[in-house]
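Researcher: Next sequence.
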Amino acid sequence: MLPSRSGRSANWSWFVSLLSLLFLSILISTGPAFAQAKGGRKKKLSAASSASPGEQSLTNIPLPIGHEAKGLVLPDFGTDGRLRGKFEAKTARRIDEEHVGFQDLEIMTYTPENRPDLTIDMHSSVLNLKTRVLSSPERTTIKRADFNITGDSVQFDTNTRTGHLVGNVKMVITQQSQLMRKENE
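Model: Next structure:
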């Protein structure tokens, strides 16, 4: 055996590599055991969570039914692969196959040039995974560089990036100078 630079034999580093591979294979093979719920029953994963991790989006949230995740961050990619938005929730809970509930959700949407556009703050909301419509029965705030708008309840379509605010809607325009230039042009 020839010693390596560190003074150890070449077979020793090969042994450490083999040992780490063995440990990794054991960890991977016992992975399903960690997915068991109390009482020995396995949790049912939703159909939306069965796609590959590279395809993660708003319709593919890797969260089993009834399970709650804290600090969830989800990207929203368009059909062209461009980042359209980012969902950050304090907590998220899979309600059923088609619905995910969020607490303290902040959505950041982006322009086609990848610049921040809208910020939407919701205390509690539910996302329909089939229609991709996000609904909140509580006061919601939508902010952009030139305005802030709030309403008692909202429905936000993540596909078309349009929303409907209902009840006690209040809008504050913060950069009126931009509006005046557009009227004069």
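Model: Residues 1-35 form one domain. The chain has two domains: 1-35, 44-176.
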